[in-house]
Amino acid sequence: SKPAKAVKHAVEAAAEKVADLLTPDVPGSPGSGTPTVEEPTAPAPPLPAKQDQGGPDTRTPTGEKTGAPPAANGQQGAYLTTAQGARLRDTDHSLKAGPRGPTLLQDHHLREKITHFDHERIPERVVHARGAGAHGVFTGYGTADTLTRAGFLRKGKETDVFVRFSTVLGSRGSADTVRDTRGFATKFYTEEGTFDLVGNNMPVFFIQDGIKFPDIIHAGKPHPDREIPQAQSAHDTFWDFVSLHTEAQHHVMWNMSDRGIARSFRMMEGFGIHTFRLVNDAGETVLAKFHWKPKLGVHSLVWEEAQLLSGMDPDFHRRDLYDAIESGAYPEWELCVQVFPDTPDETFAGIDLLDPTKIVPEELAPVQAVGKMVLNQTPRDFFAEVEQVAFHPGHLPPGIDVTNDPLLQARLFSYLDTQITRLAGPNFAQIPINRPHAPVNDMLRDGFHQQAVHAGVAPYRPNSLDGGNPFVAGDAEHAFSDTPVTVAEAPKIRANPASFDDHFSQARLFWASMSPVEQEHIVRAYTFELGKCYEQAIKERQLQALANIDPVLCAQVAAGLGLPAPQPAAPVAAVTPSPALSQVGRVWPPDGRTVGVVVDPEGDMADVRALREAVFAAGMVPLLIAPHGGMAGGLPVQRTFATGRSIEFDALLLAGAPVPAPDAPPSRDAKPADAAVDPRVLLLVEECWRHAKAIGAWGAGTTVLTATGVTGSPGVVTGDAAEQVFADVLRLMGAHRVWERFPATIV
Ligand code: HDE
């Protein structure tokens, strides 16, 4: 397949670079005997751009292309200058009264350099501060033409997109793999105006009315006195709030499920959550919910992996996304809609479509694909793009309109408002990443950081001085129009519809739709999180909420906490499970996943060479793990026993049984040298086994399995030939994990 070739190409290129470095006649290379190259003293052409480096955006603040070719590197030209363009003679020494004297206030270069640095940071997002973004292309299928007049959904229409994935609770530098909801925000730069689909990886939310957003976030964020714990929900204030505020229970169930610890941004579903209103060319409307379906399937980490990763590789999701894109394994999603008739009661199958704590099971309303998104370019400048991108659910193109969902209504206020603090003024739409690709002709003027130099004297309507320009558009000119939905005559009141009072039936639906192993994970997650709370009353109150959802779930968590299980407050609802909610029991493509291959450089490497080809051909990335870096049997070593850890591999292959390397840590044997196999290899196998990953071994590699005692257990395959073992492992990877290995004790 194409991605497989691209992956292979990228890995081969990296291997060549390693080989070049090891060539003795390169100065500074290991073993070359020549000293490291000195700092150059004369200008030289800039280094070639990396694949992900290009020039600054070539659009003006009003959206027109400038025609300037993209520059290759961020730093242009040979000479360093000030911000005003004056060439500099020295940037290492401040201007002083003599070599030992005080610094002079007149040093304009020092002041410019330090002042700019002092102001490099901007406020991080109040939520979703930690994230990663990428560029891509969306292509419409044309299957939504009868539903909406949004032009970007027309058949074959290509639209540039920028996506930002995020966690919710943590600060900008927090770990990627914490248990949390993930943001999935997409900016479609459509020709009819920007459309932001600002969604999450879970289809429901904690609250039904946006006025409570500060409450749930204050409860989830670190405690205000000690500012701990960071990026965690396992603490008293979170569980205090959600146990008192039971409409959060459905979302919390998703958080406690495997969905709370995604394997990769590439393997997450996305949801617009709210119901939107679609309007077609004839002005007819339907209600709709947006879904993103990942081509690679929906996969999760297991809890221990997530915890280990938070320490070993806190950037795991960010790295995974960028490695995949740079190697040509472009992540893909289909944009899908669930469509409902636009009836006055705004319900479907008895489910209130304005209640953002409810889903409509896919079995009741099919999820229909309307287009495809491919992410194919990493950011060039993380701050300029990922940090400064500003999403807003009110950025809507003609054909997509909002509903009265009270959560969405509050968001329509909040997102515009927050950018004014975060991006320091009202002109953030002029920042390159936020510039629409549709022509902009507004009459907004002035304000902090105004980039445009507007001409004319009549930024107002009506005017005669500009010949009446600009005019307002009608349907024929693709104007956005607000759907004239009738608003019922009703008293002004602070209240919810009665249908919003059902807080438990859909949490139960989710629980009932899980396989036993997924239920087991949910029980363990609740037990862990509540076990980290100090207040007994909070644990008891949450157990009551669990009893109202499902008595078995409640009993299991209560047992783990050593507390009695309460009775449900009312008989639990009868629900029909939705199999679409489960991640287990399906077969997914293995593309883009990572296979660790333990090699013994002293052993038979011919098999390994053929195996690498087979892994590439399956669209996956083989990473060779050896006692030392450099090359092994003419192949590049990507991980050593010191740098490799099981958590980054989706499957493990053992091509040899390497004896302990000189830097091996102590093992259970008296001296590492006495052990037959390096203890870190044994740890790799043990962890992969515990995390239910497929493991394969052949030849000498099988002795490692014997040493760890896992031979013969489910998902551990052995054989004489690498080829056959890999074929079996590949089949196992289709299920993502060897689920039988988890003891499912829920009945
Ligand atoms: Fe957000 N949310 N949110 N949110 N949200 C923000 O906007 C807010 C909600 C979501 O990558 C903020 O630019 C309120 C639901 C994502 O830049 C802020 C309410 C959903 C992102 C804000 C909600 C989301 C944000 C912080 C309740 C899923 C990250 C910085 C009414 C459908 C976007 C910013 C990015 C970010 C407010 C509820 C998703 C403060 C008041 C529901 C993915 O404006």
UniProtKB/TrEMBL annotation:
Q: What is the lineage of its organism?
A: Bacteria, Bacillati, Actinomycetota, Actinomycetes, Micromonosporales
- Check the UniProt entry and state the signal peptide residues, or none: none
Q: Which family does it belong to?
A: Belongs to the catalase family. HPII subfamily.
Native source species:
Dactylosporangium maewongense
Catalyzed reactions per annotation: 2 H2O2 = O2 + 2 H2O
Q: Which domain of life is it from?
A: Bacteria
Q: Which CDD domains match?
A: GATase1_catalase
- Specify the protein name: Catalase
Is Heme one of the keywords? yes
Keywords from UniProt, A to Z, are: Heme, Hydrogen peroxide, Iron, Metal-binding, Oxidoreductase, Peroxidase
**What's its EC?**
1.11.1.6
Q: Entry's Pfam families?
A: Catalase, Catalase-rel, Catalase_C
What residue stretches are annotated with the Catalase core domain? Answer: 81-469
PROSITE patterns linked to this entry: CATALASE_1 (PS00437), CATALASE_2 (PS00438), CATALASE_3 (PS51402)
Q: Which cofactor does it need?
A: heme
SUPFAM superfamilies registered for this protein in UniProt: Class I glutamine amidotransferase-like, Heme-dependent catalase-like
Q: Which InterPro entries match?
A: Catalase, Catalase_AS, Catalase_clade2, Catalase_clade2_helical, Catalase_core, Catalase_haem_BS, Catalase_immune_responsive, Catalase_large_C
UniProt function note: Decomposes hydrogen peroxide into water and oxygen; serves to protect cells from the toxic effects of hydrogen peroxide.
Per the record, where are the segments of Low complexity compositional bias? 67-76
Q: Where is this region: Disordered?
A: 17-76
